[in-house]
Each structure stands twice: as structure tokens, then as C-alpha cells.
């Protein structure tokens, strides 16, 4: 699950979510022509009313389109990402409303956020008040409908990076071990960037990570994740082998020559433009013993940025 979805979960669980008529970002889209709802006679009236509001306001706010909607009794543990959230009993009873369509965040962290194909609302089991919501991919809604096929492959359209990343332009990064940083590189010089996002990737992860995976020339992974393999597959399965158990920097059409860290959490990577895909492996804990955020700059021999900086966050 991407950072945007995780933030939504925490924000909603801690402070609650606003009404569905709030203004949203992004281009307007037509409302759905067909909405599939669970049998109405099996749904409490308050839930029916709320579901009707969701579908009737589609196209006017952050909910741009509703294709399907349903509801079922559940517990907090059934809501993706809620494990470990403050003041939440995983066994507490709730109702979950699930809808597929086109949904945007309700707050302005990102200038033009990518839409999510699924949204889940958690409602109090007794009062039917909304206690949280989660934006996700179609796979997050699949269990509620059971017949959601993967979308077709989609063209890659990048545009400008979300403005939310600019918070790191003048960020106070974590202390780093001063001096040269040992790196190990694995390259595939024959790799070329894909022109389409595979449908199975969109099904599992949605559009939230598209820019990071397909558009950014660099990506950091301080802790190896199960999703790494899926991301590499979506990028055309470059023939690279990262060093086991080490942090990684993925580079597209760039080559890292050496790296050196200052004490201020900024690592300068000497790099050149070079066709292909590369994974740079390094020891995260040796670089940032206290964990936190670290900034990587990729510069040529004259100190000019070759590609935009990247930020790593780890334990």
C-alpha cells in the first residue's frame, strides 16, 4: 500500500474523516451509469442513506465516479492498514462500505493527485458514524465484490511530480556517518523503459505509486519489500540482482560511480547519464545509525544534478 493511502488511514483513524461533499482535486469525471448495491432490505436504513449520499454526490466532489457499492459487517482488523493504529481495537465491530470508481484525497497534500479505484469507509457498528476511510486499488475492494477483473494496461503519462515531495527541498535530515559510502551496483544496459502500465499492476497497487515506479528516475528501498518483485516485473524485469539484505537505490538511465556522506543527512552520489537500469546497494544502518530520512543527490563531476534527488526512509 502506498504512502498516500497509509496517511489517509492514520489521519482518518486519529481525527475522523469529513463529509463526502468536500471539494476534491483533479479533472471532473462523469458519474457512473450503473451502481450495484447489496440487497437494500438487509441494510440498516442509516447505512442505506449514507450509501445513497455517496452515489448521488459522485461527480461533484472528491468522489468523481461510483461504479459499484456494497456494505457488510466487519471488524477493524478487516480494514487494510488499520493494524497498530492508535485507539483502535482490532476486534471492535464496524460496518465497511466498499465502492469502486474514481476517488481523490480530501486534503490538499498533492496538487493533482492520482485517483484511486477503491474506497472503503469504516462506520461505527451502533451509531453508523464514519470513523475512517481508506483509498486503495481494485484489489482492496475485490473481497467485497468477488468479480473484479484486472483493468487493461494503461499508457504511462507522467507530467510533473506531486508537490508533496517538495517538503524535502529544505528538510532537516537525520545524522549520517561522514565519509565515503561503499556501494555495489548491478546493471542491465539493455533495459529500456516500458511504455505502458500492466493491468495486473494497476489491479494490485492502483495509480498511487505510478509516478514513483514508472516516472521517477530513481527509487529508494531501505528495507526489501515483497512488492519490490512486482514493481521490477512491471518495469520489464531488468536483469539486475541487488545485494542481499542491503538498502537499494534504483536508477533509470543513470550510473552511480561513488558516494560520500556528510554529517547532515545528505549523500552526494557521483553519477553519469547512461542507458539502462541499475540497482545500487549499500548498508543503511552503517550510513544512518539512528534511522530516519536521508537525502541522495546525484551529481556529475562539476557538481551539477544529473537527475533529481531521492529520499530514503528507514529504521
> Which structural class do the helices and strands define?
alpha+beta
Helical coverage, percent range:
10-25%
- How many separate structural domains? 2
| Topology as a string of helices (H) and strands (E) | HHEEEEHEEEEHHEHEEHEE
Number of strands: 13
Q: Main sheet, how many strands, which sense, barrel?
A: 7 strands, mixed
Proportion of residues in extended strands: 25-35%
Low-confidence stretches: 1-34
Write down the oligomeric state: single chain
Q: Kindly, what is the distance between the CA atoms of the first and last residues, rounded to a whole number of angstroms?
A: 18 Å
Give the mean pLDDT: 84
Q: How many distinct helices?
A: 7
The Cα radius of gyration reads 22 Å
Shape: elongated
Amino acid at each position: 500500500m502506498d504512502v498516500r493511502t497509509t496517511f489517509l488511514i492514520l489521519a482518518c483513524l486519529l481525527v475522523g474523516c469529513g463529509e463526502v461533499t468536500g471539494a476534491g482535486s483533479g479533472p471532473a469525471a462523469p458519474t457512473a451509469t450503473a451502481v450495484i448495491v447489496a440487497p437494500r432490505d438487509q441494510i440498516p436504513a442509516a447505512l442505506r442513506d449514507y450509501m445513497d449520499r455517496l452515489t448521488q454526490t459522485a461527480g461533484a466532489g472528491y468522489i468523481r465516479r461510483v461504479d459499484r457499492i456494497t456494505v457488510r459487517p466487519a471488524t477493524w482488523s478487516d480494514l487494510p492498514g488499520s493494524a497498530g493504529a492508535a485507539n483502535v481495537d482490532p476486534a471492535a465491530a464496524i460496518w465497511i462500505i466498499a465502492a469502486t470508481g474514481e476517488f481523490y484525497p480530501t486534503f490538499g497534500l498533492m496538487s493533482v493527485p492520482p485517483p484511486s479505484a477503491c474506497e472503503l469507509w469504516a462506520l461505527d457498528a451502533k451509531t453508523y458514524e464514519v470513523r475512517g476511510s481508506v483509498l486503495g486499488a481494485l484489489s482492496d475492494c475485490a473481497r467485497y465484490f468477488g468479480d473484479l477483473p484486472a483493468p487493461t494496461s494503461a499508457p504511462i503519462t507522467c507530467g510533473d511530480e506531486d508537490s508533496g515531495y517538495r517538503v524535502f527541498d529544505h528538510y532537516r535530515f537525520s545524522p549520517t556517518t561522514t565519509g565515503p559510502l561503499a556501494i555495489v551496483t548491478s546493471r542491465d544496459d539493455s533495459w529500456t523503459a516500458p511504455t505502458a502500465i500492466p493491468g495486473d499492476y494497476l489491479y494490485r497497487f492502483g495509480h498511487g505509486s505510478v509516478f514513483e515506479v514508472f516516472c521517477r528516475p530513481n527509487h529508494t528501498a531501505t528495507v526489501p519489500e515483497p512488492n519490490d518483485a512486482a514493481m521490477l516485473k512491471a518495469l520489464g524485469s531488468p536483469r539486475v540482482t541487488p545485494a542481499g539484505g542491503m538498502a537499494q537505490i534504483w536508477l533509470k538511465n543513470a550510473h552511480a560511480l561513488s558516494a560520500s556522506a556528510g554529517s547532515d543527512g545528505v549523500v552526494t552520489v557521483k553519477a553519469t547519464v547512461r542507458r539502462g537500469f541499475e540497482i545500487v546497494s549499500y548498508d543503511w544502518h552503517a550510513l544512518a545509525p539512528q534511522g530516519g530520512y536521508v537525502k541522495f543527490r546525484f551529481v556529475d563531476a562539476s557538481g551539477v544534478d544529473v537527475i533529481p534527488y531521492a529520499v530514503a526512509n528507514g529504521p
